[in-house]
Specification:
- The protein has helices at about 1-25, 35-55, 65-70, 80-100, 130-150, 160-180, 185-195, 195-200, 205-225.
- The protein has about 230 residues and is mainly alpha-helical.
- It has one domain: Glycerol uptake facilitator protein, CATH 1.20.1080.
- Helix 3 (about 65-70) runs antiparallel to helix 4 (about 80-100), helix 3 crosses helix 5 (about 130-150) and helix 5 (about 130-150) packs antiparallel against helix 6 (about 160-180).
- The radius of gyration is 17 Å and the shape is globular.
- The two termini are about 25 Å apart.
Amino acid sequence: MKKLVAEFIGTLWLVLGGCGSAVLAAAFPDLGIGFVGVSLAFGLTVLTMAYAIGHISGCHLNPAVSIGLWMGGRFDKKDLLPYIVAQVLGAIAGAGILYMIATGKSGFEVGGFAANGYGEHSPGGYNMTSALVTEIVMTFMFLIIILGATHSKAPKGMAGLAIGLGLTLIHLISIPVTNTSVNPARSTSQAIFAGDWAIGQLWLFWVAPIVGAIIAGVVYKYLSPEEK
């Protein structure tokens, strides 16, 4: 239960910090943080939680990460579903807090609410194929970074930094394409509040990250399996 509570809190922070920066700070007149600021915000949420709860739950914060670690032989299958449930609930809680804050401004409209999308809902107008390829490849690379940085032969104490910066880089690349998901829990939480089209396109942001994570788990297990 302590692990699940940690995952709940960590994923809440991921959504509140990352999506919160996009909703509240990115478009602020003249002083907005833009794509770079949002990318850093997502990376910083993972970096800070890696050191805060990594020793408790492993700091997955993401169903795709849990699945990728399981495929890579680093995570027990019996914990998979409870982790995913805790992550999704934590993400929804984070989005709920963000909604409460954002609606405190007169004239606020939910709009996209930092939801992920493709086609006309892609920030850069990229189609479904581009979105699918982007999310698979970015999640694949994210899991390669995670599996490598947390390997028993990797430098100790540096995993959080590598993973946080890796997520920052992923956002710098892919925000224009899909608003960057690589995390089904994060996509679900924002889609619930954005509704309509975001719910209709949510399938891609579950399927693509999971596919990318599974491939990464298999590949890294082949490249550098953990010693028993």
